[in-house]
Design a protein that fits this description.
201 residues; 13 strands; 9-stranded mixed β-sheet; 4-stranded mixed β-sheet; alpha/beta
Length: 201
């Protein structure tokens, strides 16, 4: 099965590609071509940086948002968003202004406001992933986080604790997003990617 890893200038592509290959993905294409994405069996959207910049970079790729909407929302191709790639699934993000997301999941991305001054922002390092409901891809464990903004809204699959509950994963239908970095989460992250590659939603 082919997997399209989207290159839009805003992702940790090399590390994600290596992790996907280690997890068993042999037919992987790193691409900025919307036509390739429109035909892929699975799609991964990474993301590192500010929400608005990532959203603008994705929309700047000719036909990419349209291809994603058609292939994921309309045709049901399995999709994984990583970090800002997950956040872009939301309706909007509030980092340096308000910026529209893909609108796949009801909710917004807002600055972390921990309930204790001891909890620093950005939220960085290893933390527990606690499933909020049963999902074939999400298991309890420890993952690596690095973010200053977090999703608030519907379809939360897992949370983590940072002086209060913080969204760690969201998903619905054939799409899932994780706030943590599977490519930096060692065995836990590789196991998640392995499950994604085998997922038949």
């Amino acid at each position: 099965m082919s997997l399209a890893l989207i290159d839009y200038g805003a992702g940790n592509l090399h590390s994600v590609e290596n992790a996907l290959r280690t997890a068993g993905c042999s037919d992987l294409i790193v691409t900025a071509d919307a036509d390739v994405v429109a035909k892929a069996d699975r799609i991964v959207l990474p993301g590192v940086g500010a929400y608005g910049a990532c959203a603008a970079a994705l929309r700047a790729v000719p036909g990419m948002v349209e291809a994603l909407n058609r292939r994921v929302r309309d045709e049901g191709a399995p999709f994984l968003g990583i970090c800002v790639g997950m956040q872009l699934m939301a309706e909007a993000g509030e980092e340096m202004g308000t910026h529209a997301g893909l609108g796949w999941v009801a909710g917004r991305v807002r600055r972390l406001e921990p309930g204790s001054s001891d909890a620093k922002v950005p939220h960085m390092g290893w933390n527990d992933v606690v499933p909020a409901r049963t999902h074939p891809l999400i298991e309890p464990g420890e993952a690596y986080f690095l973010h200053s903004f977090a999703f608030e809204g519907a379809d939360v699959l897992a949370t983590t604790e940072h002086a209060g509950a913080v969204t760690a994963a969201i998903g619905r239908d054939t799409m899932i997003g994780v706030q943590f970095h599977p490519e930096k989460s060692q065995r836990y992250g590789l196991a998640l990617l392995e499950r994604f590659l085998e997922w038949r939603p």
